[in-house]
Amino acid sequence: MSIILSTEFIKLLMTDNKNKIKNLSVSSEVSLSVNGMSRTPKASPSTRLLDYLRDELKLTGTKEGCGEGECGACMVLVDGKAVNSCLFLLGQCNGREVTTIEGIDAPKLFKAFEETGAVQCGFCTPGFIVSAYALLQQNPHPTVAEIKEALSGNLCRCTGYKKIVEAVEKVTGNG
Ligand code: FES
Ligand code: FES
To answer: What residue's CA is closest to ligand 2, atom 2?
Structure first.
């Protein structure tokens, strides 16, 4: 059901048919889990997941940078996979589990970012931690190349990436 709806939304968004989106939104119900809590959003299913999280749930750890899928500042987990919430519609999350930076339980990873100096302005940090967490869940001992690949969708303007990669390495025991 959710896949059919999301395909519809994307098609409608691509054709910019706002009236159809509005009608579809009224008749479509979404329920999802966010950080372990069941939610039935007030927002329309055609709302960007990023806006729902920040505006309705006030989960402002998820940031908007580019709004175009280029920077990774808006990264969240959907069913354990790291996705750009600026490109994901609420309607695509029906029946799924969303985890934001507020719901990431990874004290070692947080500490490693702090200790290696991987955080400067901090704007990109939630997105990097979400991506790193998703990697480590699937692959607890990644190589440096695998870490770089997993973080390749995240941009940082401050650190030069070296310390961010070091932080993730530290958690793997290789750093
Ligand atoms: S704000 Fe989503 S990728 Fe940049
Ligand atoms: S720490 Fe500033 S953008 Fe990454």
So the answer is: 121
